[in-house]
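ugh ok fine here u go
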Amino acid sequence: MTNGVEDPRSAPSDYERVGGGPAVAEVVDAFYQRVLADDALAPYFAGVDLARLERHQALLVSQVMGGPVEYDGRDLRTAHAGLRVTDGDFDRVVEHLVLTLQGAGAPDDVIGRVGQALAGTRGDVVAGTEPA
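structure:
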């Protein structure tokens, strides 16, 4: 007999809800296409190994969504040191990811949680931002 309340341990993760690894890889690829087409953001990626960056981003997004992977890249503060990322550019990146997730049909609650996770990284990414 059930009490009508779903056991949260049996609920699918956000990672599963969006379609798992293949879906995350497609979102990350589409996200970088958007970011690289943005004249304000493209200079941050000059000379960057995009295949490596996309792999790390897919791992990070997968981990944030509760996937069965673990991000193995550099910590975000180290990875963004010296790039002088502004608050405005950080916001543009978040907007591109949100729009990409929406375009891929991700549920709004999943997009909200990803957005919250990204907001928590602002202090590690934006130049001159002190950790909270």
